[in-house]
């Protein structure tokens, strides 16, 4: 039994996330967690809302709330939406809670003790009308790289270039819109990343073979360009207070730590929250001197977060010189776009997670987003492709198979797994299919190749449909009940297997199937070692003969053209 620590990129607090955010971090992390639990491994799946930084303050101002009130409300909303998608976090924490505050201040202290933090004077945009220094995202202007006129002070959303607010052309305050701004001196703490250039490269080199190309290419790009020293404090009131050895740092009373310094630390902080709530041992997952040396740590995130997790956060961990667990595998994703363009709330482009759940149950979205995961390149969501995928894969291939077999069992075999008859060539063909496809499915999950895992899952479902066409038990019933019994018995065992392999991607549907067949929780494993005697042919005769089964409720409903037209008009696209 392996110990696997899984973290997803933290969803930011300023509103419900869109389907692209779900597809690029939280959902694949959940699928991977569910797969490993089904394999019998010890899994700890941690996430949290990322609550500090400028956007939280701006969103609170717009909502007419204090930042604390706004974050309280939004955390509960995001937690509820995550539950709607059956995201199986072991803990969903908050970066504004005490564990993260203490840990962030601790790391800052030890980094300074190790000569890796320096207090420097820097140039910063000051708004005369707002009477305050403006942190990165409080400043907007024209990008000096591509000319985009609404670039943020930290990064241009158009070209992706990382920026300093003083580099913007025609800067203005995003709080008030005032262009009455000046460049003034201010004091901030700088993390001396440049001192750990070679140590971070060695860390990346050691893991590069197990990371996807997208991850390694971004990490090496930053390393090849040379790590720069970065400010880790901001002129804000909402965030982790800047302290030194437990006391407020003189001159920094109105500053907080930069959100990108404290947010990754919340992975540890959220695990501390979990331990306080459950009695678990957080140190055994995060401290290599406390048992975490046997943990495999896996991170999931979109490509825009990769540099911070392959370079910046490792600088914090390595620079502390303390025995903290470092990430082993980092799965990065490209963008899920909306008809080739970006999701946009203001332009009513795209579906956000809460809206999606109002249209259809979570499993519909989970299947489509994993089956079309943006792993090797950006992908585009379209209503037309969504409809085709759901109707074919879920309704026709899985749903209809389960419905036909269980209803026929109820009608012709008194709702019981039939006895009689002996397996023949069709059953041997199906066993051979499973002998090839099930190991392939497991290997795809282990490699975190989610599109391939979904495709292999569908292929197994499709093979079951092909089997039942070959066996044709409804035709055989007219001349040989025993022959029909073999087909239906095999079909029922396939229904059970289909439910088991569906668990990582469509867990609520899988539960309906397995509950209807009365499959005990301890018999829902994906681990091939649990097959017992007889190997793959035994899977086709695993249900006790004479066992009563139920017909599950209708699993899926086809999406109609009228719905696509309605949704396209409401959300854009088409």
The major sheet is characterized as: 5 strands, parallel
Backbone shape: elongated
Strand numbers in spatial order across the main sheet: 3-2-1-15-16
**Residues in helix, %:** 40-55%
Q: Structural class, judged by helices and strands? A: alpha/beta
Straight-line N-to-C gap: 48 Å
Mean pLDDT: 94
Percentage of residues in strands: 5-15%
Number of strands: 18
Instruction: Outline the low-pLDDT stretches.
Output: none
Radius of gyration over alpha carbons? 27 Å
Number of helical elements: 20
Overall description:
- This protein has 574 residues and is of the alpha/beta class.
- It is built from 20 helices and 18 strands.
- The strands form six sheets. It has a five-stranded parallel sheet with strand order 3-2-1-15-16.
- β15 (295-302), α10 (306-320) and β16 (329-333) form a beta-alpha-beta unit.
- The chain is elongated, with a radius of gyration of 27 Å.
- It starts with a strand and ends with a helix.
- The mean pLDDT is 94.
Sum up the structure in keywords:
18 strands, alpha/beta, single chain, 14% strand, four-stranded antiparallel β-sheet, elongated, 574 residues, 20 helices, five-stranded parallel β-sheet
How would the blueprint of this fold be written?
Elements: E1 3-8, H1 19-38, E2 42-49, H2 54-63, H3 67-84, E3 91-94, H4 98-113, E4 117-127, E5 132-133, E6 139-142, E7 151-152, E8 169-173, E9 181-191, H5 197-207, H6 213-225, E10 230-231, E11 233-234, E12 243-244, E13 247-248, E14 256-257, H7 259-262, H8 266-278, H9 283-286, E15 295-302, H10 306-320, E16 329-333, E17 336-338, H11 353-359, H12 362-371, E18 379-381, H13 383-412, H14 425-446, H15 450-471, H16 473-476, H17 481-502, H18 507-516, H19 535-539, H20 561-571
Parallel strand pairs: 1-2, 1-15, 2-3, 15-16, 17-18
Antiparallel strand pairs: 4-5, 4-9, 6-7, 6-8, 9-10, 11-14, 12-13
